[in-house]
Amino acid sequence: MTNQPEAQPANSINQFSYQVGGSLRLDHVGYVERRSDREIYERLKAGEYCFVFNSRQMGKSSLRVRTMQKLQRDGVLCAVIDPQTRGTTLREDQWYAGTIKRLIEDLNLSDRLNFSSWWKELDAQSISVVERFYEFIDRILLPQTTQAIIIFVEEVDNLLSLKFDTDGFFVLIRSLYERRAEKPEYNRLTFAFLGVATPYDLIRGKGSSSFNIGQAIAMSGFELDEATPLALGLEGKASNPQAVLSEVLHWTGGQPFLTQKILSLIVNEVDLSRSPQELVEQLVFAKVIDNWEAQDVPPHLKTIRDRILQSDEKGRGRLLGLYQQVLDGDGIPADDSYEQMQLRLTGLVVKCDRRLVVYNPIYAAVFNQQWVSQALSDLRPTFYGSAFQAWQESDEQKESFLLRGQALVDAEEWAKGKRLSEEDEQFLRDSREVEKQAIALSLESELVARRSAEQANLILAEAEREARESAEESNRLLIEAEKNAAKKIKSGSIILAFTLGAALLIAILAERFVRSSTQRAELADQQAERTIQQAAQAIRSANTQKQEVEKNFKEANFKEKAANSLVTKINRDLENAKVELVNINQQSQKKIADEQVRVLEVVGILEKAKSDLSKTQDLKLRAEQGFKMAQEKTKIAEDAAKLEQASALILRQFQEGSDDTKRRVLFSAVQAANELNNLVKDNKNITNYPSTSPLLVLQVITNKLLSKEAQGIKEIQLQPITNSKIVGIDFSSDEQTLVAAQENGTVIVKSLVGQQVRQFNIPQGFLTGIAFIDNNRLVIASGDGVIRLMNISDDHLLEWKAHDSVISCLSFNSRRQFLVSCGDNAIKVWNISGNQLGEIQFDSSSVVSASFIPESDRLATIEFDGNVRFWGLPENTGLNFKQIGAPITLFSIDPPKQIVMSQDGHQFATLNTQENSVSIWDLNGRQIGRFSNDLGKVRNVSFNFKDGRKIALLREDGKIQIYPILELKQLILEGCKLLKNDILSQENWIKLCPS
């Protein structure tokens, strides 16, 4: 088995101490048992594979040590595989060889196997190291043992960081679990895994299924009801340890390391007089949160920081972004995704009511939004980070800070393969959308330009077509005109020739026809002339049409050139627009980046100045508050010292003076009590009073001067009474019944609301004490060392031998769970079933009495030398009490016989049978009251009723006197009533007693 440190006897540890970091010793009384302790023990005992995967410094190692101790007591064989003890640079064969050898030693198998020979033999057969581990389990471990075997695998995350592939190890363990169905002996073998990992991390090969066996054991922080052992270290230091512990758990969320650290800081504080809330809050800020990197010793906060910032770059952005979402509000819904599990393993967050929230206020203060923003800024490139931060902080014109062009290309290249935060992804999505819009706008511009060019080309083509058609029409008309003119010319020529011939023929043939022929010739000439003129006119018209066609052709060419020029200009303007757009975008991005850098620099300077100013003002305020508190405490201490001196003089004057003198002394006593009341204000916890002497003096004086009726003293006569003395009394919790025990064995039961009295006898002989368990059941102690449980109807329920000799004291705790008895030079603690839970051994005949302190399970004892001690009761049964603080020395002569605690736990009473008096003390050992009886010897004392403001004195004649215990203001009121008719000057009385 694994060697564990031997538990030391409880009474060998003289002082409780907090341990910051590391595993707690097996005997450490400050160990907090959580639900996870019970769950893992029960599941492993039942043979279930378990894994405890949580962040660092949560108490996993201490849990494993305690669980192993319990299991080994039950006869279970336990062993540990701890990778961190052997380093992470080993070869695969070295690691398996060392691990198996360690298991052989832990499980006491060394004498049954020659490891070196066995290992070499398997190596010679070329059997893999994973198969050798299986051979060890199947052929050696299980056949050579008969008990249940549990192997704890510690620091799983270190195992995963070994230089070789560890998938084979976890696949083998899974196969060992699955073999239970085939070979029943495998049910005796169980594995438990502890570390900072998730089940998904154990088998990482894509070809293998995940590690899907075992039960997850959740380790939560300390709860207040679980953490009661931690209050032991505050006893005797803080006035209200439970309230201080509650406030510490509020700040730490129960995180074990932080809780131990802050408690250790508290016990080293000089000034513990502040309220629990103020004390813990100021210490947390001063010693943990402020300048945390310098004060984080041993490292805790740095471990959390490094877990995030030193992870792979792909996951760092996602973890920071996810944590930023948790900080933004009241957490985020928990979905147990891989990213959320990784964030939980850092320790920063915890799953609570199906939401992921920050673990505690300390983490929220250290790892705040500013820290996350800075971490994300350090993660992002400069050009990206400045634009992203400006986009985050801007409420208007957010689009102007988005990335475009080459900047967006560079950002997407940087983001490739990274798991970024949701805000980063939104920023990039918005940037892509704006870039798409810019590209779409550019494409639209190109489309418009293309359409303009196409329109121009269409116009040019139309113009060319019209020009061609016009030219063709003109050519056709010209050709037709030329043909017509040629026809007319030809026709005129023929006519002319015919006419000339006819004229010549006529001239020859007949002279008489000359004139007539000449006239006809002239007419023909005229006709020919006209025809020629018409032809010429047709030619001129054709030429005009040709010129018009040529003009139209030139205009068409001009329009074509103009259209080509327009297209060229549009193309050139489009290219220029593209270039200008790129230039403007680049210049704009540069200007924006420059301005953002300048703004960030100014904002950073301003924020630092504000932070420095705030810190300075805070330091100044704290210094002023500290100085003011110091002045107030000094003034209170001086006033308290004066009151102590004045009270001692007043009491001496009262005891030695005449009746008249006593009345005058009463004025001084009320005056001193008034001054004390002004110092304590409304504080009702007497333990915190700077002085108690004025309270004691005024109580003694008013008891002497007031009648029993005026004091409210009640008397109860127990009947019947024999010659045997009464040794103990107690009142029921419902305030209806009183019981008394007589030395001769008689038990008297008396109703406090009527006159009903009954009694019964214990045959075995004389009794020494009695107490109520509840309204019907009693516990009775006797001189033969026996404790008996009975009801008030004389029914015997249970008895057990508690001591070998007389039981001298008997007391219950406030919840009636534990009973303490005195005898045999020891005090023993029992439950009401008669099982012994603890014991305190004393020197010979030293202990007188013991009493539980209500609501705290602490014990007060008083010894013959007058020493009062306070003891803390551990939760774990079977362990002894631990003394809390140094004893309070109350007496040097005439020591008391009995001690009993008040119901509020702030005071206790002691009975001095020689002086026939009862004294009341606070927990600092200062006397705050004294009651004496002049009519009969006092045998027993008890605080009566729930409020603890009455004390019952039992006389040996069987009469019980119940005295009220007045608070300071009540005593002042009683003193003022006595003084009202005795002071000559009414004015002085009004000043002394204004209310």
From TrEMBL:
Gene3D superfamilies per the UniProt record, alphabetical: P-loop containing nucleotide triphosphate hydrolases, YVTN repeat-like/Quinoprotein amine dehydrogenase
Keyword set includes Nucleotide-binding: no
Domain of life, per lineage? Bacteria
SMART domains listed in its UniProt record = WD40
Annotated coiled-coil positions are 453-484, 525-591
Coiled coil: present as a keyword of the record? yes
Q: Where are the WD repeats?
A: 800-833, 840-881
Q: Which UniProt keywords apply?
A: Coiled coil, Repeat, WD repeat
In the UniProt record, the signal sequence range is none
PANTHER family according to UniProt: WD REPEAT DOMAIN 5B, WD40 REPEAT PROTEIN
Protein name as annotated: Uncharacterized protein
